[in-house]
Amino acid sequence: MSEYFDRHQGLLRWFVSTNHRDIGTLYLCFALMAAIMGGLITLYLRTVLLQPGPSVADGQFYNQMVTMHALLMIFGAIIPAFIGLASWQLPLMIGAPDLALPRMNGWSFWLAPFALILLLLSLVVPGGGAASGWTLLPPLSIKASMGMDFAIMALCLFALSALMGAVNIGATILGMRTPGMRPMKMPIFVWALGIAAFLLLVALPVLIAALIMLLADRHAGTTFFKAAGGGDPRLFLHLYGFFVYSGVHAFVLVAFGIYSQIIPTFARKPLFGYRSVVYMLLALGGLSLFVWGQSLYSAGLSAGASLFFMGASTLMIVPLIVLVLSWIATLWRGAVSFELPMLWALAGMLTALIGGLAAFVMALPILGVPYGDSGFALAGLHYSLGGITLFALFGAISYWLPRWSGRVLDVRLGRLHFWLSMIAFNLGFMPQFLLGLGGMVRHVADYNPLYTDLNQLSSAGGYLFIAAQLLYPYLLWRSLRRGDAAPAQAWEGAEGLEWAPALPASDRSLGERSAID
Amino acid sequence: MFLRRCGYSVAGAVALVCALWLAPVMAEYALGPQKPVTDAAASQYTLYTMLLWAIGALFVIVLLVLLYTLFVHRKSRGVTPARFDRHATLELTWAIIPLVIVIAIAIPATQAFLKMENGEGAEMDIHITGKQWQWEYNYPDHGLRFTSAYKISGGAEAAQQADYLLAVDNEMVIPKGVKIRLLFTSVDVIHSWWIPKFGARRDAVPGYVNEMWIKVDEEGVYRGQCAKICGKSHSAMPIVVRVVNREAFRQWASERKSRMLSPDAPATPR
């Protein structure tokens, strides 16, 4: 496996490869880069919010930075990172030589850097970048200047890239499993990827449609979102919200799949209630298609519609609780050790509880109406999008990188990164719950002195968190260069095809396919 | 043995993180759900408190069970792992119990929500229009119309004043104990009108009218902010509502109206 890095030295390889491992690596490096960019913006945002008082000359620039932060993190970091992870792991875990459509895999990656360039260009065109928040709400987004067009087109490219990734994942799972791997014998991570791919397949076209409709309203004289022409700005909220809620839950599902792989390994015990976990993942995925109305509780939704969305949204806490209890039952009477992936999985589990319970609170319209656009919602979305998914990614990389590269992550640095991140994350976002309940809204560059202390706590957490993440590339570089060698069976309790001593040949020729017993 | 191997630093970090999580449950911060002055806000407060206790209890129990198993069922204690991986009754039970709890919470939540959205018995209308970056209040029953914009106090110490970003030139005045229907629209982009202590928020959508009802039971001055990003001065678009008794409200309304109708009044509502 360590020959992976020795073979084919040369820059050209990275541009022409359609090998799932190369593309997975490209995706993950790209995601890391975008995450660091988004993180640097966080430093700016938390500095502006360090004290009450006008600290920005131009509120418009602040709004651009808020928007760019979210777009970079979600479309530039989270989505590519998960697709890259799938690209690496999916074939290995089902005993396939590559993904179903390797050339499309390459294409879907290479859309991303161009999309990123378009997104960054939006900041330098006349009028500056999109400043409407990442929800791109019309009519504000319709009145916006050219930067909005760049952002819309960048998102279309990102969405196409993700859509192709989802198709690839779905096709691979459906058609390329090794003989004997019936659905109920698939690794739980593969289940999670499959459900997520389906959700993305449903959600991304809606996003693309909404974006094109927005573009048309801006330039082609249509009135999808203009009341004067018979349209409604809230239609965009419905369409975009549908994408957001299904898409976010897709990634949360994949994160849960990662935790469900890591925890049994380090408990040295099989996952408790595999079938129930599969059903709960299916339930989470299915329900997530019906919850987007939460973002419209204060927008004039009828009581009946609000109650429908409340029903679907509150039900989602049931699968979450079952999952958490299943993970604990997996640990129960196991032999638990605390290697780095396990730390991330445990932190992720508790973060999932917090994020899920916060989402439950917001799902009730009686509470969602007043607190929907407050700091409470901000905290909830960061615990879900930033906490669950990010911790899962860190856990997945620390778990599988030894298999990919033959080297273990540096233990001390890894632990330092983990503890700093954990403490900083909670320090940064727990105060936001209280700020929201106290009346602080989102997307503001300034606030009343009443909110100072909690904002300063939050900023301290933000600074510490970003500082911890700047440690991460160094951790990776150092471990890959000088880390201890890892055997194929990198972790004692790990089970699954990806830990086999001989993997399918890494080129696109058909390799030995291993059957499951 | 565990502590000696992993260091008190790890235990300390765990304790710190747990404290951060449990703090909202235990703390007596000045911030938290605001003191309710309407029925809607009161039911929100009650529901939220109940939820917080339930969530806190759930979280604490899960945390304790987790910490127990992590401590007792550790590899470093030399335990042999069991191999059980299913238990149909247990799995069914721990799916059904949360479901029942969700339904139990949904019932009062639904009732409170429907009561909040119930418009019966409204005595007067106020039309609220959002614009970049101020609010316009229109009292059709009293013939009043005026804008309410952020009043900048000026000076470097402005940022430290108690009503920084929360003061306006013309407050919206309403009578105490009267159910009022509020109608919202906008002339440019989507804004959102929110007073936390009322438990009331509605989006002002251009081209459409949203309605909401409030009945405030206590006199006072209540402040809120625009809750939907609406451009560069979104942070400086406050809302101030002064609740007075009926008599004071009548006086204010007639005084305001005569000011509007006087020959010195500016051509556009101010």
Keywords:
heterodimer; A: 517 residues; mainly alpha; 69% helix; 0% strand; globular; B: 270 residues; alpha+beta; five-stranded mixed sheet; elongated
Describe the protein's architecture and organization.
With 517 residues, chain A is mostly helical. Helices cover 69% and strands 0% of the residues of chain A. Chain A is globular and about 65 Å long. The two termini of chain A are 24 Å apart. Chain B is α+β, with helices and mostly antiparallel strands. Chain B is built from 4 helices and 10 strands. Chain B has helices at 2-26, 39-72, 88-116, 246-261, and strands at residues 124-131, 134-139, 144-148, 172-175, 180-186, 191-195, 200-204, 210-214, 220-226, 238-244. Chain B has a 5-stranded mixed beta sheet. In chain B, a hairpin with a 4-residue loop joins strand 6 and strand 7 (200-204).
